[in-house]
Amino acid sequence: xLGRLNHVAIxxxxxxxxxxxxxxxxxxxxxxxxxxxxxxxxxxxxxxxxSKIELLHPLGENSPVANFLANNPSGGMHHICYExxxxxxxxxxxxxxxxxxxxxxxxxxxxxxxxxVFLHPKDFCGTLIELExxxxxxx
Length: 139
Ligand code: CO
What we know:
2,3-Dihydroxybiphenyl 1,2-Dioxygenase, domain 1; globular; binds cobalt (II) ion
């Protein structure tokens, strides 16, 4: 069911400082900050040869990462995102195995304009998991 690791998301208290840390100390390729008001976050993407790191900072009121930052003031790993080919089939399979899909259980359009769902961390070793439907790359 699982495809590639799409990204690991890290919530940070200072997006500019975090981007600079990845750029200058870790010598990574870092994007400009991208505000996503619909998702309540500003993101910076760190491009790795085999995956991405998403640096997240709360944006606006009711940000889904505001509580996390309040509980982890120096920041921390927030979720990991796996690619799936068919998100509806993945949801059906997971529900049949007793896993809890967060929210109303239906895919939402995520930060990359692709359907995503989040799985309850208590069902997956204390880790918040995002599934993102990524179409097959034409060969
Ligand atoms: Co994500």
